[in-house]
Structure formats: C-alpha cells, structure tokens
Amino acid sequence: MQFESDVSLGSFNTLGVMSRAEYFCRVNSDADWLAALDYAKTRSLPVTILGGGSNVVLGSALVGLVVHPVGNGIDLIEQTDGYAVVEVAAGAEWDRVVRHCNERGWFGLENLVSIPGSCGAAPVQNIGAYGVEIAQFVDSVRVLDIHARAFDTIHGQDCGFAYRESHFKGAWRDRYAIVSIRLRLSKTPSVNTRYAALAQALTRDGIDQPSPLDVLNTVAAIRASKLPDVRTMPNAGSFFKNPIVNTDYAKKLLAQHPDMPLYAVDEHRSKLAAAYLIEASGLKGYKHADCGMSDDHALVLVNPGHGSGAECLALADYVIKTVQAKFSVTLDIEPVVMGS
Ligand code: EPU
Prior knowledge:
Blueprint lengths: L3 E5 L11 E8 L2 H13 L4 E3 L6 E3 L2 E9 L4 E6 L3 E7 L4 H11 L23 E2 L2 E2 L4 E8 L4 E6 L20 E11 L9 H9 L7 H15 L8 E4 L5 E3 H10 L5 E3 L4 E4 L1 H7 L6 E2 L2 E3 L6 E3 L6 H19 L8 E3 L2
Parallel strand pairs: 2-5, 3-5, 4-20
Antiparallel strand pairs: 1-2, 6-7, 7-12, 8-9, 10-11, 10-12, 13-19, 14-16, 15-16, 17-18, 18-19
The structure holds uridine-diphosphate-2(N-acetylglucosaminyl) butyric acid (EPU).
C-alpha cells in the first residue's frame, strides 16, 4: 500500500472543490485499514475518511491522512426463499450495487438508483429518495474503531438512522470508519411507488403494474431529467435538508403560499420542500462568484467555476439568511464539511 503526500482532491469530490490532502492512501482490505491507522499514529496525524466525495464540502487543505476506500466487492452472505443478505465493501459504487442487486433478484433498493457516491458513505447520511431510505435495508455495518484499532459490527437498528442523519454523521463522526455494510433485501419483487412524482411518471408511461426494474428505470429517468449531472456540472446533490417545522406554522405558511408542498411527518410536525422555499425566495439560478444555485433544481448548489469550499459555504449562508428573512424557517446544510 502506498502513502502519498500533498495530493490533489479535485477529482475526489463531486462539488469540484480544489483541495489538497497532506497525506493520502487507498485501502482495500483489513490489513490496509490497520496499516493506515499505524501510519497516522506514528506521525500523530488526524485521519479523515473520504469515500466517493459526493456529499462533502472540502476546505482548501485536509490536514493529516485522508483514507480512500477502494474495495468493490458485493458478496451474497446468506439467503432463504424470502430474503438475501448481501455484503458490500465501503468502496463499491452505490449505483452499481443497486443495479447488480436488482439483476440478481434481490429487491428493495430500486428507488435509490443513480445516487452518486460509495457504499461506505450511504449509511452516514442515510441516503434516501423517492419514498425509500437505506435505513430500511441495513442489517449491520462493519466498522473500524479508529482509536481502539479494532473491527466491530453495529446492527442497523443501533445506527441512529433518521432523515438524512445517523450516529456516523453525529456522535460517532471521528470514531468509526465504515468498512462494509450488510443489506437485507427481499427476493419477492415488491415495489414502493408511494412518492407522488414516481407514481405520476409511471402512470404517464402507462405502467400500471410496475416491476422493480420499471421502478429503477423510472427513478433513474426522473433524476436525470431534473438533477444536474455531477459529470458535467459539479454539485453535491441536495445542499440543504428539507426543514421539519411545527404543523401549525406550516399551515400558516400554506395560507400565504397555497402552492407550497407540505408533507406530514407525524401528528405535530410537517416537512417543507427546501427547493420551494429557495425558489420562492428568488434564488433558483442565483449566481455567486464561481458557484451558484442550479437553474434545474433550486436545492442543488453547483460549482462550475471550481470555487473553494468557503465560497460555496458563503453562498449557502446567503441562501439560509434569505430564506430565513422571507419564511422564518432555518435551513440546515446537508453535506458534511471537511477540513479548513
Ligand atoms: N421544487 C421547487 N423548485 C425546484 C425543485 C423543486 O419549488 O427547483 C419543489 C417542487 O414543488 C417539488 C418539491 O420542491 O414538488 C420537492 O422536489 P423534489 O421532488 O425534487 O424533491 P426534494 O424534496 O427537493 C428530496 C431529496 C432528494 C431526493 C428527492 C426525491 C432531500 C434533501 N432531498 O429532494 O435527494 O432525490 O427528494 O425523493 O431530502 C439528495 O439528497 O442529494 C437528493 C437529491
């Protein structure tokens, strides 16, 4: 295994920020992970794990050792007539795993197709789309405890999954590296078409009994039609979480903005569409130095000029303040900020 110094991370983050790692290595096995920890310990370097880089805002420099998982294994661990448990390496590309599982007849992940990034990052922010979250399928997560230098297994129900949240993003942020995840998938081809935009697209295409593959293809088409492609327009997906507010307040806003989308969370809370709030604040397509809010989808911060992480965060701050002034709702950014 090789350790490099002063490595450009320009191609390791989909937001296209020009950042540098003080030290950098790729890991592909338990032995590599331990060698990386030893290297960092000997030199007293902090360790940062960087996966597909699709949900991060990087500072101009990442001090210490940046560890990039590269394994791409997808292994069937256990199966019955009803389900299959599949273990995927942290470095495996998420979209490839979704398509592979669907081809093998291991169902459930179809609504999560086309999400950029690696499998190790998927549980961190509990990736979700079109009515489905990865939390529903996580049997367990194999981790490396960075300080104890020991591997461990954490059950899905103990990971603290919530909307775009987990303990890996919160209290465990600097403690664990995710090495692999086990997903429990169904061998019965059921589908989830409750998300309105998905149901409408299927109806429009005349598909009334959709197969899992129909759902996969339809979600991929919806995403391609409305989200900017990271390969041509640097971005980190949704830059803000959809805010959850008290339902009484949400109803007040609805009275003033009758076209505003509103989703019930529970008896007292509702989720608003951050994209709507940003567009209604006049910021869809707003340009700020090298970055801006996408013309295609108001929730996506794009960085065509490869502006710095600080520039992107300054724009995010402006968006937060503008939405706050108009709606009295505070948006939270979704990606993880790394480095200075
Ligand atoms: N809208 C606007 N302007 C826009 C885009 C959308 O006003 O430019 C409004 C529309 O009224 C629309 C509503 O916002 O009905 C919701 O838009 P959309 O269906 O695109 O979903 P979203 O809430 O903006 C969330 C996730 C996406 C996920 C989609 C589909 C978050 C933060 N984002 O977006 O996830 O793909 O739902 O489930 O929850 C991501 O996390 O990177 C991501 C793309």
